[in-house]
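G., before I forget:
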Amino acid sequence: MSIVEKAVAKLKTLPVESSAPIPDEPRPQQAVPTVERAQERARESAQPVITAAPSHVDIKALKRIGLLPSDDEAERQLSDELRSVKRPLLANAIGKGSETFARGKRIMVTSAEPAEGKTFTAVNLALSLARETDYEVLLVDGDIPKSDVTHAFGLSEKPGLMDLVADESMAPAEVIFRTDVPNLLVVPAGKYHPLAAELFRSRRMEHVLDELDGRNRRRLLVFDSSPLLATSESQVLASHMGQIVMVVAASRTRRQTVTSALRRLNELQYVGLLLNMSRLPAAESYNNSHSYYLKALKGGA
Ligand SMILES: Nc1ncnc2c1ncn2[C@@H]1O[C@H](COP(=O)(O)OP(=O)(O)OP(=O)(O)O)[C@@H](O)[C@H]1O
Ligand SMILES: [Mg+2]
């Protein structure tokens, strides 16, 4: 607890989360939205969407590389944890019973240091939000150097966020890839650019983000990112967000490190701290098959 006490103090003034339960549907993995449905949605939102066939999300492969829980029990546990994580995020984004945050539909998952579980959290949070049938989720790979989301979803050869920001002639629809998971779309990282931080700070970036989310009321953006203390582009990316999920590796990340990362954020954002990689008390009885879990330490409460 002491790791986050100071950080949480910074957040005390934030609105209280809605306590309304959010139903979670079982994940339909094989339903393939048709091209017609994509076109209809594009018309509805007056926003261009790529109408190519949806790319297949290989759930088994995601499990193999550790981005999804490996067994049913771990999946159930994570699903429960994520319900309490996403409840305040949804309330802040779309205002169910509480005040919305400016840019609240832009949610960035980050951490102070490498390997704290950002990508794992971003992917699972995006899938969990996509199960809310009223919304669609754009999972954006904002970790330009590592691009783990891009690789995991088999989009390494595709244009992405960095290309869109660097090239004014490109349209957002060129980097949005529909998947065969209902309500889930992915924006790959794109090619590395040596001026990534400067481009992320540019007016073009704000325009791009507006285009990605601005005109579509039912779209949420979930960004994976590089560690806040490791790259300046991550800090710049954070400055465009309305909500930050700060992943903290339990028993590993030092309090000063978390505090230092939190200082990089601005006061107007909702910041939720998420304790990750904390062993369940009952883990031994499951033969350590799920030695990690997620816990919302701060969710506006
Ligand atoms: N809650 C969790 N349950 C199970 N495995 C997890 C969990 N969180 C992280 N991991 C595992 O820990 C490793 C690091 O996680 P991840 O890649 O998400 O970290 P990261 O913060 O994105 O790292 P990087 O800074 O290198 O991008 C991965 O192998 C992932 O499978
Ligand atoms: Mg990562």
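Residues 84 and 296 are 7 Å apart (CA to CA). The mean pLDDT is 80.

More on Monday.
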